[in-house]
Amino acid sequence: MSTTPKTYYLIDGSGYIFRAFHALPMMMRKSDGLPVNAVYGFTNMLIRLLADLDADHLAVIYDASERGFRNEIYPAYKAQRPPAPEELVPQFPLIRATSEAFNLPGIEVDGFEADDIIATYARMAREEGSRVVIVSSDKDMMQLVGDGVTMLDPIKNKPIDAAEVMEKFGVMPDRVVDVQSLAGDSVDNVPGVPGIGIKTAAQLITEYGDLDSLLARAGEIKQPKRRESLIEFAEQARISRQLVRLRTDAPVPVGLEGLVARPPNRQKLIGFLEEMEFRTTLARVEASFDKLGDTGGGEPDLSAPGKPEAIAQAYELVQDSAALQRWADAAVQAGVLAIDTETNSLDAEAAVLCGISLATAPGRACYIPLAHVGGDGDGLALGGDAPAQIAMDEVRRILGPVLVDPSVLKVGHNLKYDAHVLGRPHVGLPITPWDDTMLISYVLDGGAHGHGMDELSELHLQHRTIPYSAVCGTGKTAITFDKVPLDKALAYAAEDADITLRLHMLLKPRLVAERMATVYETIERPLVGVIADMEMAGIKVDRTTLSRLSGEFAQRMAALEAEIHVLALGAFNVGSPKQLGEVLFERLGLPGGKKSSKTGAYSTDSSVLELLAAQGHDIATKILEWRQLAKLKGTYTDALQAQINEQSQRVHTSFSLAATNTGRLSSNEPNLQNIPIRTEEGRKIRYAFVAEPGNRLISVDYSQIELRLVAQIADVSLLKQAFLDGTDIHAMTASQVFGVPLAEMTPDVRRKAKAINFGIIYGISGFGLAAQLGIPQGEAAAFIRAYLDRLPELKVWMDETKRIARERGWVETLFGRKCHMPGIKDPNPARRAFAERQAINAPIQGTAADIIKRAMARLPGALAAEGLQARMLLQVHDELLFEAPEAEARRTAEVAQRVMQGAAVLDVPLIAEAGIGLSWAEAH
To answer: Where does the signal peptide begin and end (predicted)?
Structure first.
């Protein structure tokens, strides 16, 4: 007679304590001031597990002490770890009391880590033929996976099996110890072998079988540095193996029979929750017991969803110095301060600062009106008289020191705008240090959803914020914020700061848990001040040049219009898509006309016209040229004149930091990143961007960075060698694909190879390449097949990237940025194919964005260190534009090139090319 094998759930209690502590607000305290955030997180984790797992054998495993047998082997083991945070120390015994309250076995053994105890119980359970689920995401326990042992990430509720281990370490679980022995672990101070990381370690172990075989044959390693390190640090690798290998012989205090899960006792559990003051959790548990009609024992239903702990709002209007001083003191005491500004315009250059809102704890926020001009809100601002407000000098005196106090972290949402407004000379409130919840969300979930505060509040806090229209109105009756009554201004502005702080408490801990802290700390956060400075600097634009170009474009458009009318056999409005469609597909009878089901009009977008032009229809070519000129005139030569700031006589674009799913910046108001430079007319517009007298513009541009990244990321040996040799990459590709010797290369063949090279980056199809080159689709598809046959690594990488995108829902850049692909599983084939092309492009374009951002963060310091006065003005994808005194232009270019080329270490050289001129066109 067979019986169902038992399953043992072994919970890594110690590992979860720290995750719960960092994931929840430190302000979560009992009425007596005792911090309980980790206890609260641990309690609710147990509730979820007990509801979801239906486990009959379960135990919570804890670390007993900091030091153990590993310190005897290697005294420096974990030596650099900082002591536990003060707020966490008193929660350790409470967390152990939590497992007792739930009637769960809590196990710890002196001298052994929780990992060793779990490994021991796992071994015992497997020996009796039972299954084991380790509730943890700790990488050190991945060596135990396999043969009936799996892991479960309690935060993500995600199982971890051999496939996840392989993805993490590059080897199967039985070789994880070997890989860790080589790579070491900086967190636990496991030394490993210098210069060998996880990826290299996995390659070595895969090739040589195991650590001992590798060390015995280290002399065979071809790479000199790697060979020397393995020989010199062989004993260190063996010591590391003793540190990372988990013991399976810990002297556990109870056998497997002691790990039977028992239902919690009502009186004990409810008493514990009352003592911890977890009101929502208590109500949920009591309701579950009441359903059972049980007064003493019984097993409650803990699976019913509970609402988040309610946060009471206490918002204050601050209208005098004494009240502001209290808030400043509270910020210093809390060590964190959420801040938001209210202005009368979205243009940070022109906006008037109306007020500042602050938050020091969830639900605890204030609003400081500074420039309100009257209203009728509950007697706070009556008639047309200005309400009581604090003078800016007093705000600077009281709040200014807090905003630059290094012990107080300032938190904002889209802080670039607030820093811009507060940092202006007449305001004089610079901010440092800071965090930005918009950027934290962007790093965590780029491409998955928007990152506006209102959207994040609903998504993460289930709280709908007051809309701006509710306080300022809409349309012709809308008012600016300085005219909003103070009662309404308080509710709206204080909520913004409050929600920002609550989002920070929720999102910031995820950076470490999801291994995204480096992307945020080294790429995104340093850029806030850099971009704000660029926006404030702006760039000088010559009105005369713009006006002259507008006239030229208008004349050329008129001439083209006349030519188009002749070809169309009659006059019509060239700017009307409806009339154009009727002319092309009815009057002239051109092929390919398709009517929209919504409007009933023919489609005449650029793809339709480009196809007609490729077929030799001259009218389509001239219409495309007319449209290009119309766009240049309307968007740039006319519009830019109106966007010149009257005070600075410069144009100040705004860069969006969280608008794309690849990490690229985007420019708007005006958009200076989309000025076309492939046409002569487009290039002319850059002549209007000029240096101030006595200065020069310096353009520094990465050369073919995305193709270099294709070679790197896809590990394409042919492309790598070409870049190392300095070969013309397009000619080399043409030679390989089309079999044409380099000496016989023609411009047309090279052009085809160039189109494929760059098209591959964007996942180009045979149809797309055919339209671009003006050749039959079958011929274009044959070109792509020949290309991928000559570069097989690229095809492997593309297929693998699409597989990963479908499996995870996101792809990664070289620096770890996640680019989410929401449409990757769309049932619509067209949308799914588009997402697959995005998945191929995102790691390349995203890595290029990461690299130039890394350079931008380093450049201000590098220029200052050289004593240079240069200012960075613009970033246009792979190009940076600077302005510098004429005498410093060459040195500025050299420093910029050096920093940009050193922003990443690749297998192929990064090349940054520089140009200097009186205008952007001359410099580029």
So the answer is: none
